[in-house]
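Sample entry (405 residues):
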Amino acid sequence: MTMMPEIKGAKTQRHGGLPVSLPAWAYASDELIDIEYENLILPSWQFVCHISEVANAGDYATLDMKKDSILVMRGKDMALRAFMNVCRHRAAKLLTGTGNCKARITCPYHGWSYDLSGELKGVPAEKTFPGVEKDRLGLKEIEIEIFAGMVFTRIVPGGPTLRESFGDMADIVADYRLEEMVPGGEAWIDSWDCNWKIAVDNNLENYHIPIGHPGLNRMLDSDLTGIINRHGVAYSKSVLKGTPSANRAERMYQHLAKGAFTHLPDAARRTWTFFSLAPNIGLDIYPDSFDIFQILPQSGTSCVMRYPIYVRPGASREEKAMQYLNARINRQVGLEDRELCERVQNGMGSHGYEPGPLSNYEHAVLDFHNRIRAACPVVADAKAPVSGTLRQCNDALRSGARSAA
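Predicted structure, serialized as tokens:
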């Protein structure tokens, strides 16, 4: 296990010497969600699309989050840019989903139009805006980075690049040649009845696999500990077992994997690789495909799950069968994860619950909780602040921590 560096401002609670998880109220507070969104989601890299989805001039993709919408657009100069997906006139959302703009981005409300590089070009009834400075009213541009064919954006700038965040782990990702893949269909988007942190906690540990995911446990030898680096990128792997699973779909996948995707390194052909990127993204890589598990805060007791899948194009018949079997197997895993997370959410409301100790297997969960504690020191309180005062209490604690430093 990689030892985690101390996260500045985090004060870990303990029980008998062991670290414990966050208090139950932190998994149900609408007020806390807003603070977490501002201090953890906005300054972090968020996945928008794959480069294959924005390959041509005018191609675009959008990402909707709690309060914001992001637009990624390929310009006529073939440069890829990211903007806030909102008109500079009166805030109408400009584009939805994915598609192609031939010439201009036109607001559906009043018809203000922007070229593909985000510059404001057309204002209907422009004479009624005396002195308007169109050159200062282009779309708000934000940070963008392409990593292994994946397009990420960041609303609040600063911090490490994705390449810096992954460090040596980037070499593991590179083995799978993700930039060659294409969408495997429409992204699956759903709402789960649990706080976003519960879903992230679940994604950050493999301790639950032997009990919670019997199918994965039948077909894979899973690393239950994994590693995590100082940027909050966690990594673990599961290797296909030599013993055939008792389940037909799992057994067939194990069998087909022996001779498929021979252009990949041998280890990559037999390994399912799992990454987590703080604070809310999971990257699951298989020899036949990969998916992004993006967990977006919605309310104190609900979150939005965004789950696009990308497959290797030009696959043989056997390789396409592996893609189908993989989707079938992981569909079941997703149902199991949802049930487990919603069970936890229900349990958080129990009067008898107190935060329990964390295992060494859950060290990435501890890292995540410490990031929450650093951004939201108010979660150190066993009981929630009086309704309407949480932001004030949190700001005072953060200010005090800065003064003490």
